[in-house]
């Protein structure tokens, strides 16, 4: 990459969540525990949906794929965060930083599109139930997962390549605990207009477009639910998508606020921590506790193991 060859910066210093060394061990243990909970929770969801035949439906297939993506997303953030919390030199190499940028951009955008795919699935089930089985065939479901992955990888590579085209000749201190496009743009001393425009377009494609798809799908879903006669039927229809609405709201809510807050503000770091670590740890419990099918499958699996 041309930007890497021309830059004067060889590494970046990541400013972690606290300036007080005595709190870093506590934060390390806390984030390690949350990370382990996230891995166990998402792996459990994947295994349950794989092993229980009653969950071999498009909805649970997408949930398991979303859980897989969350494991990759969290794993692209947390190991660097943990290592810097206990290291004296809280740095990351120039190349390592952009590897993390590419990974976060790939998995983050894929999560956004998988949320959109899950919204499409629920919209189809509620609004077109008679055509659902015919449309949501296994090969089509696989395509709905593979296509976002492929497009998001390409999108992330483009964004990363053009971000390396920025000139990093000033401060190498990122006011963040991970390498992301926003903080890197903030510390760059020269940002070519073409590069900035290209990166902005990739961000719109990776975040804004799937967000708009989600909004449109759920407007359609809620409009249909409101028209359903009978409170029992309404609750049943809403229960099929309530977990997804909660997960999407948590993810997009914290991510949107984090991107709107100025990068010099520490609040941006705390919000990023929520959507990159806390939310993925909570999601498996949302899908489990608010879903009778998953709870039943979990109980059957527990009995089988015991």
Write the topology of this structure.
Blueprint: H1 2-6, E1 11-14, H2 21-51, H3 58-75, H4 78-86, E2 91-93, H5 94-127, H6 129-135, H7 138-163, E3 173-174, H8 181-187, H9 193-227, H10 231-239, H11 242-260, H12 266-289, H13 292-305
Parallel strand pairs: 1-3
Antiparallel strand pairs: 1-2
Helix pairs in contact: 2-3, 2-4, 2-12, 2-13, 3-5, 3-12, 5-6, 5-7, 5-9, 7-9, 11-12
The span between the termini is: 54 Å
Q: What proportion of the residues is helical, as a percent range?
A: over 70%
Quaternary structure annotation: single chain
Q: Mind describing the biggest β-sheet?
A: 3 strands, mixed
- Counting DSSP E segments of at least 2 residues, the number of strands comes to 3
What is the general shape?
Answer: globular
Annotated CATH homologous superfamily: Rhodopsin 7-helix transmembrane proteins
Spatial ordering of strands, largest sheet: 2-1-3
The fold-level CATH name is Rhopdopsin 7-helix transmembrane proteins
CATH architecture: Up-down Bundle
Give the DSSP E fraction (strand runs of 2 or more residues): under 5%
Structural class: mainly alpha
* Chain-averaged pLDDT: 86
Low-confidence stretches: 1-6
- Specify Rg, calculated over alpha carbons: 21 Å
Highest CATH level, the class: Mainly Alpha
What is the overall number of helices? 13
The tally of structural domains comes to 1
Order of helices and strands: HEHHHEHHHEHHHHHH
List keywords for this structure.
3-stranded mixed beta sheet; disordered N terminus; 3 strands; 306 residues; mainly alpha; Rhopdopsin 7-helix transmembrane proteins; globular
């Amino acid at each position: 990459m041309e930007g890497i060859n021309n830059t004067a910066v060889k590494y970046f210093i990541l400013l972690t969540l606290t300036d007080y060394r005595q709190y870093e061990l506590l934060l390390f243990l806390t984030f390690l525990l949350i990370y382990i909970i996230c891995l166990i929770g998402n792996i459990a969801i994947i295994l349950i949906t794989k092993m229980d035949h009653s969950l071999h439906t498009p909805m649970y297939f997408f949930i398991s794929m979303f859980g897989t993506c969350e494991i990759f997303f969290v794993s692209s953030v947390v190991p660097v965060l943990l290592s810097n919390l206990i290291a004296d030199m809280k740095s990351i190499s120039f190349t390592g930083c952009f590897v993390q940028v590419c990974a976060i951009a790939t998995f983050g955008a894929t999560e956004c599109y998988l949320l959109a795919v899950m919204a499409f699935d629920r919209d189809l089930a509620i609004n077109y139930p008679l055509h659902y089985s015919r449309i949501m065939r296994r090969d089509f479901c696989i395509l709905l997962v593979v296509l976002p992955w492929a497009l998001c990888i390409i999108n992330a590579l483009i964004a990363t390549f053009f971000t390396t085209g920025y000139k990093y000749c000033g401060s190498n201190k990122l006011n963040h605990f991970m390498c992301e496009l926003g903080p890197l743009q903030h510390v760059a001393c020269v940002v070519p207009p073409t590069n900035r425009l290209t990166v902005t377009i990739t961000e719109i494609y990776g975040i804004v477009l799937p967000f708009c798809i989600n909004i449109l799908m759920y407007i359609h879903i809620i409009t249909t639910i409101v028209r359903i006669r009978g409170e029992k039927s309404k609750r049943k229809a809403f229960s099929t998508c309530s977990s997804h609405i909660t997960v999407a709201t948590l993810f997009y809510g914290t991510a949107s606020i984090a991107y709107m807050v100025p990068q010099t503000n520490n609040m941006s770091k705390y919000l990023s921590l929520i959507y990159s670590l806390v939310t993925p740890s909570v999601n498996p419990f949302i899908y489990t506790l608010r879903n009778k099918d998953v709870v039943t499958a979990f109980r059957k699996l527990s009995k089988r193991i015991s």
